[in-house]
Structures are given as C-alpha cells and as structure tokens.
Design brief:
88 residues; mainly alpha; globular
C-alpha cells in the first residue's frame, strides 16, 4: 500500500483504521493472485471497498446506508474485477 493510500484511509477511517484495514486484509487474503495484483495497483477506494464487504452497511440489507455502500462496492469492483467472482 502506498503512503498516499494509507494517509487517505487514515483520514477517512480515523480511529477505526486498524479494524477497517484488518477487514480489508481478511478479504484480500481470500483472493486469487491476479485479483490481489489488481487491488495492489489500485488506491484507497479499492481497499475501502474490500473493507465494506465485512461492514454491516454492506451485509445488512436493512442498514440505512446499504444501497449507497452496495453501489460504491459494485462500482469499484466493476473496474477491478469485471466478471470475476469474489469469494469470502
């Protein structure tokens, strides 16, 4: 992860940085080498999308931010993974 990406994620997540980056890394570890390379070439939004996969705003359809978060994740993954399937 670049210094710029880390700085941006620390700004966004504040005190939740350690937990959120841990969530992103949990998902990252389930990915294929090719998928990991695509994430490595990305930036803060791509890691944030990975972290959201474990966030209630994404996993709970009744969460008030579910639609917004789902659209964000889908938009990031559409460019990164095209039709690849992400398996958790």
């Amino acid at each position: 992860m670049s210094t710029e990406t880390e700085t941006e994620l620390r700004r966004r997540w504040g005190e939740d940085y350690d937990r959120r980056i841990g969530d992103a890394l949990d998902v990252y570890e389930t990915m294929s080498d090719d998928q990991r390379q695509r994430v490595n070439a990305g930036g803060a939004d791509d890691l944030a999308a990975l972290a959201y996969l474990k966030d209630p705003a994404y996993t709970d359809r009744k969460h008030p931010k579910h639609q917004q978060v789902s659209e964000f994740v889908q938009s990031r993954f559409a460019g990164l993974f095209e039709n690849d399937e992400i398996i958790l």
